[in-house]
Design a protein that fits this description.
elongated; ten-stranded mixed beta sheet; eight-stranded mixed beta sheet; single chain; 2 domains; alpha/beta; Rossmann fold
Length: 504
């Protein structure tokens, strides 16, 4: 009885399915398994289930099923691959459940047909991590792009940053050796058979995002997932053609997102954490995600100036002058009326209102709003152009729908506990073709940490969450300014539908 089964669901992973007709995805994967597992001491088997392929990958699988492990291998003389040929279903979850049914190992190492393994004896490394902690259900490795750039060290799902790949774009030296994650992508997903069986296997009604949905059930049941740089693989998914199936059509992807929302009460790509907290607080699902409930901004805990201090120090503090100048420049991109969410004590809002533009300064910290009222009076602000607005929750301002030409989020999307809620409120307040201005303190070249007071975005994460929340068309990627802020501009499209995106 093998200790581990390496499973490969195959549908059109051959040369004919590559962009230029030359890359043999499945053949390259199997060559890498022969190379990296020849000396692996684990008792293991490799099992392919073909879902009615119409390209050359089926013949590749048949050819490898006739090959034997080479001399010197712990499995010398035994068949390298066991092949199961299925009638085509086009539903990956069904193929995966069939693979689990046909496999024999205590641990199931699932691989996509377009990956290549680089680490020798990687199954033994997976088994060691799974053996070390009986609560660990899933292990994944370091996923690289074909050119060697870091693509992912596991995923986050229920995050203030939205669904995203951890470590994407970072140098390998910035990554932890082992880290707990919410989700391991299906391209490399080593799991404990009993854990998958306990939560009911793969949901066959989910056409795409099967492992994310499975991860939610595993997390809810208290299982853990780890990602490690001890195992490295490359993913060549960008080199394949679209495959003729329902799952990858726009309608199929939308159906998968809707199914996730039906089951879990939130969007998979841009989860509204208010709904997550209300439904799942106190469960291991929320603990695994490391999220917390509603929490108002407090300047001291976020390292910001106390109420009114920016007014008092502005004339003598060059760094503060640079920050306010950058904010004012951003606010001058659009004409009013506009709203500034996260206005602090409102100096930037005051200066923009002094241009004769109607500005509503919104803040959830009452002492800061009081400081704005006091300081603006002494500063001679034109009260007809500046309005201060205290709200108990930035995502529920109570302001009139479609009443602003621009909404600016000044260092607020990263300090508000539920960024999706804040972005949706911004969308509600904007007129059609209104401008969203996001300025956010940046996370640059370091691995993110969860549970901190603020959740800093990398550039691609900020762009993704604005796209995924729906109703916005980004005008350009975020740019980093001289004071360490990302700046992103997006146009309101008047629609709540987000762009379908599964690759992050």
């Amino acid at each position: 009885m093998p200790r581990a089964t390496v499973i490969i669901p195959n549908y059109n992973n051959g040369r004919a399915s590559s962009r230029d007709g030359t890359r043999d995805f499945l053949g390259k994967l199997l060559e890498s398994l022969e190379r990296t597992l020849a000396d692996d001491p684990t008792e293991l088997e490799i099992l392919i289930a073909d879902d009615g392929s119409t390209d050359d990958s089926l013949e590749t699988a048949r050819a490898w099923s006739r090959r034997l492990w080479p001399a010197g291998s712990p499995r010398a003389g035994l068949p390298m691959v066991r092949l199961v040929e299925l009638a085509h279903t086009g539903v990956l979850s069904k193929v995966l459940n069939a693979l689990h049914a046909h496999s024999q190992g205590e641990y199931i190492c699932r691989l996509d047909g377009d990956v290549v393994l680089e680490t020798p004896c990687w199954v033994a490394k997976c088994v060691a991590l799974l053996d070390a902690d009986p609560q660990v259900a899933v292990v994944t490795g370091l996923q690289k792009l074909p050119d060697g750039r870091v693509h992912a060290l596991g995923d986050a799902i229920l995050s203030p940053l939205g669904y995203h790949h951890l470590g994407q774009g970072l140098p390998e030296s910035a990554l932890p050796e082992v880290v707990e994650v919410e989700h391991a992508m299906g391209c490399f997903h080593a799991s404990r058979r009993d854990a998958i069986a306990q939560v009911g296997g793969y949901d066959e009604s989910v056409l795409r995002g099967q492992t994310e949905e499975l991860a939610m059930r595993l997390n809810l049941a208290g299982w853990r997932a780890l990602a490690t740089t001890r195992i490295v693989f490359r993913h060549f998914h960008g080199e394949r053609h679209w495959r003729p199936n329902t799952a990858d059509t726009g309608a199929g992807l939308q159906r998968s997102l809707e199914r996730f929302r039906e089951k879990w009460g939130c969007d998979r790509l841009a989860p509204d954490l208010a709904g997550v907290w209300e439904r799942w607080k106190g469960t291991p699902l929320v603990e695994r995600a490391g999220i917390h409930g509603p929490r108002a901004w407090d300047p001291e805990s976020f390292g910001d100036l106390p109420p009114g201090a920016e007014w008092d120090r502005f004339l003598t503090d060059p760094a503060l002058q640079s920050q306010i100048a950058a904010e004012l420049s951003a606010l001058r991109i659009a004409d009013g009326p506009g709203a500034v969410f996260g206005c602090r004590s409102g100096l930037s809002s005051f200066l923009r209102a002094r241009d004769g533009i109607e500005v509503t300064a919104v803040e959830e910290h009452a002492p800061s709003i009081r400081a704005l009222a006091e300081k603006s009076k002494s500063g001679g602000a034109p009260t007809k152009c500046l309005r201060s607005c205290y709200v108990s929750d930035l995502a529920s301002s109570g302001l009139q729908t479609a009443s602003f030409n621009f909404v600016a989020l000044l260092d607020s999307v990263e300090r508000y506990w539920n960024p999706v809620g804040l972005l949706r409120e911004s969308r509600r307040l904007l007129v059609a073709d209104g401008l969203l201005i996001v300025r956010s303190r940046a996370r640059v070249a370091r691995f993110e940490s969860r549970g901190k007071a603020s959740h800093l975005f990398a550039a691609h994460e900020l762009l993704q969450i604005v796209q995924h929340v729906g109703g916005f068309t980004p005008l350009s990627p975020p740019t980093l300014d001289s004071v360490g802020r990302w700046q992103l501009l997006a146009r309101s499209s008047g629609s709540a539908a987000h762009s379908v995106h599964f690759g992050a």
